[in-house]
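Q: I'm writing up a methods section and want to include an example of the input and output format. Could you take the sequence below and give the corresponding predicted structure tokens, formatted cleanly so I can copy it straight into the document?
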Amino acid sequence: MKYDLDRLIDRKEFGSLKWDVAEGELPMWVADMDFASPPAVVEEISRLAAHGVYGYAAEGDWTSPYISWWRDRHGETIRPEELVFSTGVIPVLSSAVRTFSRPAEKVLIMTPVYNIFYNCIRNSGRRIEESELVYEGGSYHIDFDDLEKKLSDPYTSMMFLCNPANPTGNIWSREELSKIGHLAKKHSVIVISDEIHCDVTDPGYEYVPFLSCGPEAEEVGISAISPAKAFNLGGIQTAACYSHNENLRWRIWRQLNTDECGEGNVFAYAAARAAFTGGGEWLDEVREYIYQNKLLFKEKLESALPDIHVVCGHATYLAWVDVAAYMGDDIPDSGVMQHKLRQETGLFVSKGGIYGGDGEHFLRVNLATPRARVEDGISRLISFFSKRGRQ
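A: Here is the clean output for your methods example:
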């Protein structure tokens, strides 16, 4: 292994949201990695920091690295004029809501899904329309009959698509995405595809860009992309969106700039360039390491606790843990379980209820951390559930 991913980096003294916890607690919640970013990124940021002048940043040629990466890694052709800078994927979603829908209209989401989708919709005065994914045989799939019923509602003007899916880890197939594009076009619904987890896939697995799925997807879609998850740059605030539809592209560009989140800071453009041009080898090693973490977590937890099922899709570094068998009168929902788990063992994970759908029966665990911490987390989970017993 070229990169030392087993190294335990102390993040507590450096303003880490994830590690703002009490002594002895183990945070495996918020979706960032505990690995140092690729050396190419660290070197570039260090070079800029050493310069000592942090004025307004010139964009420079920030689009070429995105274009090359999506062409070489994902087989997707993006033209320079199709890319729009944003300070994050969530600003893209929030700006899109204000651009492509009106107050009191509905934005559809397939749940369980990233909890901040709810904030983007509610904070803009729109209504949430849920189409629940079907949990069957230990994995999830789309209920297309329900999806079309919800998309056909005249009040549904937009859809947020999580591609790949957080927290379930689904990599949506070309056929599934093409069908979503077809239904959205049929019912005049704009689709905003959040593709921030697209580069964190199991070795041998590849995500499908929504906008590569035919003319109907191209006509109705905007995709939000970023190096943040793959290269651990969440705190740098660097992202982009693109569309092959000129009208949609112009409107999202206008709204992002109206919302004052269309301009990068002095590190934003440089970090993305360094990641996409110099981080590929590092990422491939990280993907393999995370995959082994997922296998270890699932095997050890399910062996020790047969009533638990771990959903580890082929994307993201998140485990979606089915703990329904351990819920009861004293633990009626995932929030109570999260609290008791943290109180009794010091393990801090995400409560599943915030992701909607059937999430109240789940916990979300972040496995993008050195293996020693994964082992520690497994031990704490086994200790907690062994004492509790099946309800």
